[in-house]
Write a structure and sequence with these properties.
globular, alpha/beta, 13 helices
């Protein structure tokens, strides 16, 4: 009620909604229909093929009856990557789309020489979409050839997937593997800084904030091409690989054989890339220009795709 009243009384100049599939994501769309208030929507990965094909059975009814009709009110979508832009177009939406990445603060660079064990880090939700069911068999295939490396899996459980992955680790007889809970703040920064290599074998990702955080901390990354990080190779900061256990094994063979100094150099390149293209100043300038355009018209900013 507050939202509808605020729109009707022109107390809101522009509205920006994040994600889909919850009623507040519908309320924002319905509210702007009663007044000329521009609405931006950031799907946040909810329109990917993986996301649309998974989840509750209610989604199959909610989409055509509630969520899709509501999105007709969108003035401009916001995508965090080219792949998310493609998802929006694949779903049939022809409104303008601003492609603007996520931004973040660069932490202090605190890389240290490894101790007796070198760390391959996964940090994120323990969720089926993240591809841990590929990572664990891949680790089983390489663990004996790289006894100086350990695998650390850090993050919160989702849908009981942690227990499934712990069971799989036992079945595979994995060595030097550690499951830890979620980390925040300085502890999370330390996990990135202490790792020599980050891995995200995801099935679907609209952005992959953890990849940016790892690179910002000076840690190179291995990421599947289901996430929008194809620039890893071009920037000499890691590897973008096909989705699958075998491609992951092949990449781990290559990456784990690198010396500490080689990986550190890749991490420094990644940090420079993050500083150049993902700083808050860079992101905020693009978002500010997009808001100004949807409010006042004129020539669309370069980040906005109208076709």
């Amino acid at each position: 009620n507050w939202l509808f009243e605020s729109v009707r009384n022109h107390r809101i100049d522009v509205m920006h909604n994040h994600s889909l599939w919850m009623m507040p994501n519908v309320y924002s769309c319905n509210a702007v229909k009663s007044a000329r208030v521009p609405l931006l929507v950031s799907p946040r990965g909810t329109l990917s093929e993986w996301a649309m094909g998974n989840g509750s059975r209610i989604k199959k009814l909610f989409w055509p009856l509630v969520q899709r009709p509501a999105l007709a009110a969108v003035s401009c979508f916001h995508a965090t990557s080219e792949s998310e832009y493609a998802d929006i177009r694949r779903m049939g939406f022809d409104q303008p789309v601003a492609i603007i990445p996520n931004g973040f603060e660069l932490p202090e660079l605190r890389k240290t020489r490894p101790g007796r064990a070198r760390t391959l880090l996964f940090l994120g939700r323990i969720h089926p979409v993240k591809g841990l069911d590929m990572l664990l068999p891949a680790w089983a295939a390489v663990q004996d050839r790289y006894p100086d490396w350990q695998l650390r899996i850090t993050g919160p459980d989702a849908r009981g997937h942690l227990a499934e992955m712990q069971k799989l680790a036992n079945q595979l007889g994995l060595k030097r593997i550690e499951f830890t809970g979620p980390l925040f703040g300085r502890e999370k920064e330390s996990a990135y800084a202490e790792a020599e290599l980050y891995v995200l074998p995801t099935y679907s990702e609209n952005f992959g904030m953890s990849v940016a955080e790892a690179l910002a901390a000076g840690t190179p990354a291995i990421v599947t091409n289901a996430a929008p990080w194809s620039g890893l190779a071009a920037n000499g900061a890691g590897w973008s690989i096909e989705v699958g256990t075998n491609p992951l094994i092949a990449c781990l063979e290559q990456a784990l054989s690198r010396s500490h100094d080689e990986l550190e150099l890749m991490g420094r390149r990644g940090r420079l890339w993050m500083k150049r293209d993902f700083s808050w100043e860079f992101v905020a300038d693009k978002m500010r220009a997009t808001y100004d355009w949807v409010l006042n018209g004129g020539t669309a900013p370069a980040c906005v795709h109208c076709g």
